[in-house]
Write a structure and sequence with these properties.
Shape: elongated
Helix content: 40-55%
Radius of gyration: 23 Å
Distance between the termini: 43 Å
Bound molecules: tryptophan
Largest sheet: 3 strands, parallel
Structural class: mainly alpha
Number of helices: 14
Length: 340
């Protein structure tokens, strides 16, 4: 795809970002920004759909996520980082899109369905939550995002988006909106410290990019390994052993890993040794990110200025899209003011 292809990605600001985010999407964005016109959105409006009663949490995490983005190397000179709620056109567009979506269709969205079950909303699910995929369609299409890097779980959002795009273009006989292509990350999900599920803040099994070296050490020492590897001399299992899963991803010395694995399988290699190795590897990886984060934390006004500048640039793009949308929808009333 060409250099002028527009990429749209984003995260809900509900907590600082962790290693799972890094592996699943941040690393990818640092690459994509060199090839595409990339927009990275801090989805505060979407975060509010299930945190509307806790706005301070969302406010605080705008900065945390902004700091994480800049610290990992999302470069404001290459990517446009913006705050969702500062783009009123997204809300405007979402209202128009709601006409193209039935309540039944919304209730069938597998991602939303799973979230409703997980949060026990049942019949009391709010309209805001149920309709967030429509809002997400507006996020993507307001900048004419053609490529959306996502995890598998977000695929229903892209399907929903494209249904709206096609219905809109067909109904108004226009080619205003652009269909979005998912760019699915094939990197397997990073397991959490407990090895039970994917790394996530809500499961309490995450290593955050902003964790200190000591916290990382403590967390690694608590990591799930092989429950049957009791004595150092016992042969141990590498598969499903979270320490090795992480070493595979973060240790660049592949020979060393191969030897460690063989030794562990044979027996005679203790968990503490492999954990110490992983602590060294992870802290080596996180150190430059921490250093940049610490620098940026000294100047939070700069971070906010980056987010505001990105939001202004996004508003300009969004305003252009809305001109076309309004024209297609016969809402360009200003033309009726002009004398013929
Ligand atoms: N729903 C995404 C998540 O929960 C965040 C998000 C909001 C997003 N709008 C988006 C992702 C648009 C990609 C494109 O992580």
């Amino acid at each position: 795809m060409a250099h002028d292809t527009i990429v749209l990605t984003g995260d809900r600001p509900t907590g600082p970002l962790h290693l799972g985010h890094y592996v699943g999407s941040l690393a990818n964005r640092v690459e994509l920004q060199n090839t595409y016109k990339q927009f990275v959105m801090i989805a505060d409006v979407q975060a509010l759909t299930d945190n509307f009663d806790n706005p301070q949490k969302v406010r605080d995490n705008i900065l945390q996520v902004g700091l994480d983005y800049l610290a990992v190397g999302i470069d404001p000179n290459k990517s446009t980082i913006f705050i969702q709620s500062l783009i009123p056109q997204i809300a405007e567009l979402a209202i128009f899109y709601l006409n193209f979506v039935t309540i039944n269709r919304l209730k069938r969205n597998p991602t939303v369905k799973a979230e409703i079950a997980q949060k026990n909303y049942g019949e009391n699910v709010t309209a805001g939550f149920l309709t967030y995929p429509v809002h997400q369609a507006a996020d993507i299409t307001v900048v004419k995002g053609a490529l959306v890097p996502i995890g598998e779980d977000q695929l229903p959002m892209i399907e929903q988006t494209n249904e709206i795009v096609r219905a809109f273009n067909r109904t108004y006989n226009a080619e205003v909106l652009v269909e979005a292509k998912p760019l699915i990350s094939h990197v397997p999900r990073l397991p959490g410290l407990d090895g039970k599920g994917k790394m996530s803040k809500s499961l309490g099994n995450a290593i955050f990019l902003s964790d200190t070296a000591d916290v990382v050490a403590k967390k690694v020492m608590s990591m799930y390994t092989d429950p049957d590897h009791i004595r150092v001399s016992d042969p141990g299992q590498v598969e499903g052993n979270v320490v090795f899963t992480y070493l595979d991803i973060f240790d660049t010395d592949k020979n060393e890993i191969r030897e460690l694995k063989a030794h562990y399988r044979r027996g005679g290699l203790g968990d503490v040794v492999i954990k110490k190795k992983l602590i060294e590897v992870l802290n080596g990886f996180l150190d430059p990110i921490r250093t940049r984060r610490a620098e940026l934390e000294k100047d939070l006004a700069y971070v906010m200025a980056v987010l505001f500048k990105g939001s202004q640039d996004t508003q300009a793009v969004a305003a252009q899209t809305m001109d076309e949308v309004r024209k297609a929808m016969r809402l360009d009333y200003e033309t009726m003011l002009k004398k013929s």
